[in-house]
Specification:
alpha/beta; TIM Barrel; five-stranded parallel β-sheet; five-stranded mixed β-sheet; 36% helix; DUF2334
Length: 250
């Protein structure tokens, strides 16, 4: 199994101490991940304490550009990361969204503004990471209109094409994904909530036999296959099932 890594919720005011501790693991195992940058964060839950931000880079976007130069990938991770609708959209892992349920023109403007902010700071990307994994058909249409070509979401064992975009699947259940012998997937990590004791667990995953950890750039070079209606229905039901299982667990 070949697995890439994505890090959500990258902002200037995040918990940088936790981020750097996880980055040390990535550097140790030579894994170049995808990072989802929020261009105008207004989600209080993503903000770290003043103590956790004391080692933050003096110039956030210069740091992000430096990571890109080192081989890290960047995705636009929403606009404000504020959930303003109660829609799960086409991939209902959650029942809230920053995008799903909003009119097309509003979504188009949000995506255009987020892209503009990144580009004003010298960060270019054609990859989108939906906050809460939630998006709808208007989101996909607005992404294409703004020049985006791909999303980091969906389930499956290789990239797939749908609605004129390429989807790079994430893991349905990482423990099962690590046991598979073939295919590709993504491990999703939220560094802002990682506890110290969890780092040892992540290190064991990086050491797992039969797993090849790949850069996200390598993942993006894997040929994509077309996905039809049956595949989309199966994915939707899997996402909804995971949503219900998580809710029951909590």
């Amino acid at each position: 199994m070949k697995i890439a890594v994505r890090l959500d919720d990258i902002t200037p005011d995040m918990d940088w101490q936790r981020f750097f501790r996880f980055k040390a693991l990535l550097d140790q195992y030579q894994v170049k991940p995808l990072i989802g940058v929020v261009p105008d964060n207004r989600d209080e839950n993503l903000r770290g304490s003043s103590e956790s931000r004391k080692d933050a880079p003096a110039d956030f976007y210069a740091y992000i550009r430096g990571l890109q130069e080192e081989g890290w990938s960047v995705a636009l991770h929403g606009m404000n990361h504020v959930y303003s609708t109660k829609k799960g959209g086409l991939f209902p892992l959650n029942d809230f969204s920053e995008y799903a349920g909003k009119p097309y023109e509003e979504q188009k403007e949000m995506i255009a503004r987020g892209k503009q902010i990144l580009e004003e700071h010298g960060v270019r990307t054609d990859l989108f990471m939906a906050p809460a994994h939630s998006y709808d058909r208007n989101t996909l249409r607005a992404l294409k209109e703004n020049g985006f070509q791909a999303l980091t979401d969906g389930f499956g064992e290789q990239p797939y094409l749908w609605q004129g975009l390429t989807f790079y699947p994430i893991s349905f259940r990482l423990s099962d994904t690590l046991k598979k012998k073939k295919g590709y997937s993504t491990m999703v990590v939220h560094t802002g909530t990682i506890q110290e004791e969890e780092l040892a667990g992540y290190e064991k995953r990086f050491q797992a036999e039969g797993v090849t950890w790949i850069s996200y750039e390598e993942y993006r070079k894997v040929p994509a296959v077309k996905r039809g209606f049956p595949g989309r229905i199966r994915e939707y039901l899997m996402a909804r099932a995971k949503f219900l299982l998580v809710r029951l667990h909590h």
